Amino acid sequence: MLKNSNAFSRGLIRSLVATTAVFGAFSASASAQTIIGPDAAACAPGAKGPAALIRVYGFKDREGNLRTQVYSDKAHEFLEKGKYLKRIELPMTASGDMNICMALPRFGEFSMAVLHDRDMNGKLSVSKDGVGFSGNPKLGLAKPDYEESMFVARSGVTVVDVILNYRQGLLSVKPLVARRD
Which keywords are on file for this protein (predicted)? Predict the structure, then answer.
């Protein structure tokens, strides 16, 4: 009887360990945010880069599209029409942060602009859309300085956190949530 009891106990323990491993793996993967975009492979583990993992948060809602544009290290080209190096536009995800991978053309200095194009008209509608920048500068009525929005891409994947800002009141543009530091 003792022999059968020990075998049963070992079998039960193995089953519990296997079940825990399966559910533990499921929980870990379910809580991890998916990296999206046409360049997602450039942010995979072991990727050599250069690439930026843009983690966008602070959404007002899930309407419309999210447009991400990267600009060169030339301050005079920052936010100028047609002067971006690369653009990725994606439909909004159902919930959570949006983690977009963007392969970069080289290592060095860049700036990033993100538009939550809620009305999907392809341009900033100040009264409706959200906007954010690398470096998360405080926004006023004028565009932010390049230096406040600049980031440096090094080897591998560079993480760039961007909080979105929306119009609040007549002249205020600010985040709806607290900044993550």
Answer: Signal
